[in-house]
Amino acid sequence: MRIRKEQCLSWMILNIVLSSSGLLAGNQVVTPEKPIQLFNGKDLTNFYTWLVDHGKVDPKRVFSVVDDIDGSPAIRISGEEWGGLITDQAYRDYRLIVEFRWGLTTWGNRRRAARDSGILLHCQGVDGNNREDFNGAWMRSLETQVIEGGVGDFIPVFGYDRSGKQIGPAYTATVRRDSKGDAIYDPEGKMERFERRRVNWFGHDPEWKDILGFRGRADVESPEGEWTKIEIICANGSVKNIVNGVLVNAVTDCNFDYGKILIQSEGAELYLRQIRLLPLK
Fold first, then answer.
1. What pLDDT digit, counting tens, does each position of 200-211 carry?
2. Smaller CB count within 10 Å for the chain: N or C?
3. Contact 80, 268 (CB under 8 A)
4. Would you state the torsion angle of the CA atoms of residues 223, 183, 121, 232, taken in this order, to the nearest 10 degrees?
5. What is the rounded (10 degree) CA torsion for 126, 56, 38, 81?
6. Please, which residues bridge with residue 157 across strands?
7. What local confidence, expressed as pLDDT, does residue 26 receive?
8. Rounded to whole angstroms, what are the CA distances from 57 to 45, 85, 88, 268?
9. For the chain, what is the domain count?
């Protein structure tokens, strides 16, 4: 197949822009063409770790691999420090499968709060850029929320570039409003454009409280102590969250459609026994 000079030049320019933004760090953006087992069952190959005040050093072993949780190896995220487990590569257009369950330990100011984590999609920029000094826990991204009672909510995460400019995702969703005026995903609802505003999953309880063990009336997350399967489909600017086989939330026309994947450490012990990417086809 012949590749025109104009195409080569375009790809060169794109890679220069992405590298200067801190996204690529020497890696191409990957579109999976076959299944990719991000967790190999042995170690944290395919990931690096990031913690506030520690960077890529993990002195308390917040992130580790344990031999046997319910009969198979798993990644343990202790939650003691704020940060994330981040993929080495950036990805676009994929199906992400994650299976998780909560541990028993909670920490600090979230010791009695709802167990909390999240899967940050399309992470861009340098590590820790949700703070202007780049010592934050996250990167600018679109978050699939993982919290008791709110698994599948979408939250925009804003971050800074080197010039100090704040950048973050915007997206479109069809929604209704609950009794508090919060946006709730509803495929029959009104189409709206969202910037700096979250969209909750369709069964998000309007009486949700940030308390340990909270469970909403319509939750599809598995009961405490059991595994929950999340499937996230990212395709050309659209993102769908599927929890235990149920489509709970969807957005389209997101201006973030590629980047790294970050799983948060945010005050609650979390186990992950499967993290894999599948091609869209």
1. 999 999 999 999
2. N
3. no
4. 50
5. -100
6. 141
7. 44
8. 15, 12, 15, 20
9. 1
Q: Render pLDDT for 38-63 as a digit per residue (tens, 0 to 9).
A: 999 999 999 999 999 999 999 999 99
Alpha-carbon span 280 to 94, nearest angstrom: 5
Residue 7 main-chain phi, psi, to 5 deg: -65, -45
- Alpha-carbon distance of 165 to 158, in angstroms, equals 10
SS3 156: strand
Q: What residue numbers bound the domain in which 197 lies?
A: 24-278
pLDDT in tens, 104-126: 999 999 999 999 999 999 999 99
Whichever domain contains 44, its CATH number is: 2.60.120.560
What's the gap between Cα 126 and its chain centre? 16
Model pLDDT, residue 27: 63
Q: How many CB atoms lie within 10 A of CB 142?
A: 26
In a domain, 18, yes or no: no
- Residue 3 domain-assigned (yes or no): no
Percent of the residues in the chain that have a pLDDT greater than 90, as a whole number? 89
pTM: 0.90
Q: Is 80 exceeded by the pLDDT of residue 65? A: yes
**Distance between CA 26 and CA 270 in Å, rounded?**
30
Q: Where are the beta strands (DSSP E) in 2-149?
A: 29-30, 36-37, 47-51, 63-69, 72-77, 83-87, 90-91, 94-106, 116-124, 140-147
Task: Find the angle CA(55)-CA(15)-CA(132) to the nearest 5 degrees.
Answer: 35
